[in-house]
Write a structure and sequence with these properties.
Layout: H1 7-18, H2 22-34, H3 38-62, H4 68-76, H5 78-110, H6 117-132, H7 136-146, H8 148-158, H9 178-191, H10 198-201, H11 209-237, H12 240-245, H13 249-255, H14 265-290, H15 296-318, H16 324-338, H17 340-349
Helix pairs in contact: 1-7, 1-11, 1-14, 2-3, 2-9, 2-11, 3-9, 3-11, 3-17, 4-5, 5-6, 5-14, 5-15, 5-16, 6-14, 6-15, 7-14, 13-14, 14-15
Length: 361
């Protein structure tokens, strides 16, 4: 089947969706709460996601070869199930629109200050739409092909160690206290959204459920360590006061680097980072389509509609002076959709009879 993927491709689908714009500002956000223990907050957030992945795995085992769209209908019935799927669709579109707005603001701040926002928005969403219209195998192959950029980003980050670093900024370990570390992990959790796409991709992977759980766990481990590393180098590269005052410390930490052949490493880093950011849009456009239909022709029409809605949402948000209130509402609402609701689906599934055979009916 052309629309199936292997477990390696699933790994890259997950990490490409999770790793996006949130990383660039994450160190300053969680440092305000967890101080020098911010890197521990990232590890705690990764552990929380792993617990959710266990629930996802148990749920998907009960309904083999089915996506969340089919599971909600099976558990809650046609009316409520389809209503929930529509709500999921709305949230996926809102997340994509919100992310697009953040991407445009970042690019205008650092690179293209004179370019109209609607043009950048059109380019970002247009590129994402072009890829999202393809089947999942094509999308996965593109994600695998561009995964080499993560290695390049890490190599660029090593240049930071040419600057003066202060390891004492993270000492003594645990000084912030458990409550502040948890507060920082909450902010980190929102920056690591994207793992929920496995609820729509698992059914199209050519492997057994045990192997799929290992892949999802490995992807979560990779993303957690990736985020922890960048938070760590920012903590030792900036003084605590300086880190609180910069919006994108990951970029600022590279801004001062200059070499004979390369200048402004921050812009080189950001130019590469645009690809993972766009990949996140692709994934959410894809799962938005899959949340309402399984038919390929209907899916393509829905993706076109979704792309238009994402553009309109992104354009509207860009006209607002402050989107923090919308951001908080969206993220906490979305948290309910990806955490308590799947847990509820899993618990209610025990009340169904013969649900272990649903995949073969």
């Amino acid at each position: 089947m052309n629309n199936t993927i292997n477990k390696s491709q699933l790994f890259f689908l997950i990490i490409k969706t999770q790793i996006g714009i949130g990383l660039l500002s994450l160190p300053s956000k969680i440092q305000s709460s967890a101080k020098g223990d911010a890197w521990i907050s990232v590890l705690v957030a990764g552990a929380a996601i792993q617990l959710l992945l266990i629930v996802y795995w148990q749920l998907l085992k009960k309904f083999p070869n089915q996506t969340l769209r089919e599971i909600t209908v099976r558990v809650f019935g046609a009316y409520m199930g389809k209503t929930l799927n529509l709500i999921y669709y709305v949230f996926f579109i809102l997340i994509a629109g919100y992310a697009s707005t953040l991407y445009v603001q970042l690019i205008q701040t650092w690179m293209l200050s004179m370019t109209p926002g609607w043009v950048l928005l059109l380019l970002i969403i247009g590129t994402g739409l072009y890829l999202a219209l393809e089947n999942l195998r094509v999308i996965a192959r593109f994600f695998v092909l561009t995964s080499v950029l993560f290695g390049l980003l890490i190599l660029i980050s090593f240049l930071n160690f040419n600057n003066e670093v202060q390891v004492s900024n993270i000492l003594p370990i645990g000084e912030s206290g458990f409550a502040q570390i948890l507060k920082g992990s909450e902010k980190t959790f929102f920056s690591m959204l994207g793992f929920e796409v496995i609820l729509y991709f698992f059914a199209q992977v050519q492997s057994n459920h045990k192997d799929l759980f290992r892949v999802a766990s490995f992807a979560n481990c990779f993303v957690t360590l990736f985020y922890t590393y960048f938070v760590f180098i920012c903590l030792i590269g900036f003084s605590p006061k300086a880190l609180e005052q910069v919006n994108e410390p990951v970029l600022y930490i590279l801004k001062g680097l200059s070499y004979t052949l390369f200048d402004r490493m921050d812009l080189i880093f950001l130019s590469i980072w645009i690809i993972p950011m766009t990949a996140t849009i692709v994934s959410y456009l894809c799962v938005a389509g899959k949340s309402l239909t399984a038919n390929q022709s209907s899916y393509r029409r829905l993706v076109w509609i979704s792309g238009l809605l994402v553009y309109l949402i992104g354009w509207y948000l860009s006209t607002l002076e402050n989107i923090e209130l919308f951001s908080n509402w969206l993220l906490y609402g979305y948290l309910i959709m990806i955490a308590p609701l799947p847990v509820l689906l899993w618990l209610v599934s025990f009340l169904l009879k013969n649900n272990e055979k649903v995949g073969s009916t």
